[in-house]
Write a structure and sequence with these properties.
The protein contains 17 helices and 13 strands. By secondary structure, the protein is an alpha+beta fold. Strands 1, 2, 3, 4, 5, 6, 7, 8, 9, 10, 11, 12 and 13 form a 13-stranded mixed sheet that branches.
Length: about 475
Amino acid sequence: MKNAPLLRLARVVHTFLAMSSWRLERLSVGWVLRNLASISVAWLVVRVDDVGLTIAYAALTACAYYGGNTILLATRAREHMIARHGADAAWLRYERILALMFLNQGLGLGALGSLSMGRFAASPGIVALGASLLVVGVVTKVWSAVEIGVDVYFYKDMFLGRRLGELVVGGPYRFIPHPIYTVGQLHAYGYALLQRSIPGLVGAVACHLGLLAFHRLAEGPFLARGDVRDPSPLDLATVSRAEARASYTALDEFVFVEQAFAREELAPLVDEAERLAERATRKVVPGYKRSGSVSYFQILDEAPAIDAFYRSKELIAWLSEVAGAALLPCPTSDPHACALYYYTRPGDHIGFHYDASHYRGARYTALVALVDGSSSRLLCQPFKKHRKDASEARVATVPGSLAFFNGDNLWHAISPLGEGERRVVLSLEYVTDPEMGRLRRSLSNMKDAMTYFGFRQLFARRTHAR
């Protein structure tokens, strides 16, 4: 192909600019202004040439990058961003933040090397060594970034909690396990030597150690763990209970069945859900959830088909065999036992949480999608209780699908709804022991009233005890 060399060169240039915080496909007026403001601050620091100011500036930019990025990727901060904004929007926000971190960390190290204080005498040998380290470091780092791709260089895989492809073994990765973090940092030392700067050398060492600490605390555990990819959907019409049980066990008590129920089977349930939509209690809990809900009390009064579906012996038998436990419907005094959730406005979502059980026995959740043509996803992190670095699965809950899991075990969320979209889900709760103490019942109902169904349901529940 005649244009292949030009395309490779364009890719190298594009990657180099992205590494320098200029992602051409993302550039906007705001992006350019932020970068120019950062460059202006660095220029002023260099012009002033004050030791204290320069050290403080370099330390601040390094801590913001190495410390800030470790906090964003090694804690639940990214989960909260994804739950609040959706994966794509959250990633773009993080990308803008990280681009500024990249730029300012480099500017801070450059300013430190430009200090007039702490310079040593030059010699041809030092100049040659500095130039060699600079070239080797830049070439290795850019080559490595071209191999892994700009998105991975910007930690998109770590931010989303799943790998974007297979581990790269080509290019410099054939010879060095982590070329960006080792040989790819030599340019910082080379620049300091060319500047004849002791502070620059100290800064290069400090930044190198910061990067290695980030790798140990955040990236290393992510690369070393077994990846949990989006679960392979099962078809209830063809899969055996034994196969469903095996999938459920393999994903730490979580299974997803894409074709669980035929549309004809769900049609009466959808009709009842649509009739109840205007009765939904809308609750907004800042930083956690936005959606509408219909409680089991309203379903008992106005949705007999949904109640019959919830109590279906065939469904309960199937779920019991998959769970490996004898399941029972929750008492009718539980407004959460069988409920409808309506996501109807842009941004409707629910943050990461466990379906914690207040019952004496375990509680299991079955989510049946009734209406869903949205970009919203069920976000799941199996193994979260066992591993801090648990990977994340994103599940499209198409109408008729079933997600079944141990509520106490699965860390999960619903990503935000897009513009002009709508999502209606039927939630079914089952328990191994329906007994619950009065205090726990009061606490559970209070929580449900505040976050889902409204306080009016606290009084309505008394008329539905069986």
